[in-house]
Fold this sequence. Notes:
There is one protein chain. With 410 residues, the protein is an alpha/beta fold. The protein folds into 2 domains: 6-29 and 51-197 and 334-361, Response regulator (Rossmann fold), CATH 3.40.50.2300; 199-331 and 369-393, Response regulator (Rossmann fold, 3-Layer(aba) Sandwich), CATH 3.40.50.2300. The chain has helices at residues 6-13, 88-102, 120-129, 143-152, 184-187, 198-212, 228-244, 260-264, 267-281, 291-303, 315-318, 334-347, 380-393, and strands at residues 74-77, 111-112, 134-138, 157-161, 191-196, 217-224, 249-256, 285-289, 307-312, 326-332, 353-357, 364-366. The strands form 2 sheets. A 6-stranded parallel beta sheet has the order 2-1-3-4-5-11, sandwiched between helices. A 6-stranded mixed beta sheet has the order 7-6-8-9-10-12, sandwiched between helices. Helix 4 (143-152) links the parallel strand 3 and strand 4. Helix 2 packs parallel to helix 12 (334-347), helix 6 (198-212) packs across helix 7 (228-244) and helix 9 (267-281) packs across helix 10.
Amino acid sequence: xxxxSVGLTLFGGLAILFSACTGGATPTPSSPxxxxxxxxxxxxxxxxxxxxxxxxxxxxxxxxxxxxAPNTKIGVVTDVGTINxxxxxxxxxxxxxxGAQAIGVTGDIPYAVPKDASEYPTLINNFVTQGYNIIVxxxxxLTNDTIKAAKANPNIWFIGxxxxxxxxxxxxxPDTTFACKxxxxxxxxxxxxxxxxxxxxxxxxxxxxxxxxxxxxxGAIGGITICAPCVRYIQGYExxxxxxxxxxxxxxxxxxxxxxxxxxxDPVTGKAFAKQFIAQNKPDVLFQVAGLTGxxxxxxxxxxxxxxxxxxxxxxxxxxxxxxxxxxxxxKHLSVAxxxxxxxxxxxxxxxxxxxxxxxxxxxxxxxGHDNASAWPADLQGKLDAALAAMKAGTLQTCPxxxxxxxxxx
Length: 410
């Protein structure tokens, strides 16, 4: 269940970093000397085999496209950081590689890594001027520059990963007033913005959290109250936990109501906030939905000897500093979404506008337990599989009814 949210659009428009970013820049499109390494395999006995817990970075290879287009030129502009970040950059790039292979493109596709946000438009335009047919941009920070490029180049396909819903004005430009009166499918017919069912991923994570909890109290910390995806994650988390234990106590809080930097780019604040939250609420599992700030939340969880739950990608891999206490992560399957969209474009089935990924198209999941898999009860995987099947069938409620789903908490 999804609701259009001014908070989400504002969230994307302000371009606040969600994922860990470490130096490095590639100012012009370049091919990697070697593809990013695959995430480490799960240890024997960990519940990694089912759809509910398949790592976001290592989906099954997509079926070959019905239409082969070996001359298609695909380029990827990542967010700031590195290509091998075990996070948005790496998994988006892997998805682009898989999609390219499925349509018959051989060799590594080029990518560009900006040194800072000022390079986004230049790097996108480099691919435009070099005649690329499909340009993939990574993460909501690139939303406005992708919209501008799609408006200026209506014959090029643009795939914006984690950039839905699109907010444009009547002329197809980014709407800084957030009225969102423009129709993206009409005004930007070759811009596809990918979005995800955060509540479904949160639901699975909540099931795991409740299953490993011994005290009957679990927690969740979001970055900012007007972030609709953050709210949906936590709403799903609570419903999933209560599906396991109807009497479980789920405590939640948000770092801020107004400061985006503190909400998503301040691990020191995140750790301090989480330490206070743990002292007050005494959870034995803590879910972070706060980007870099949330890494500090995971650090606090580990120091308190309680379980941590990661967000967006498998944080056991992307944030090894907290791997010792991460019991799962609520995932967006970035590789699946990117590769399947490339195939749809080639097959002629793609449409511009918002594209939604959820359980029905393997767009979400929960990470395996990795080194902490022994904390999972023996019957938990079966429950996760059943929940995922119900999500696919549309019979499981993972978010409160509209308009409450994704709405700022009171």
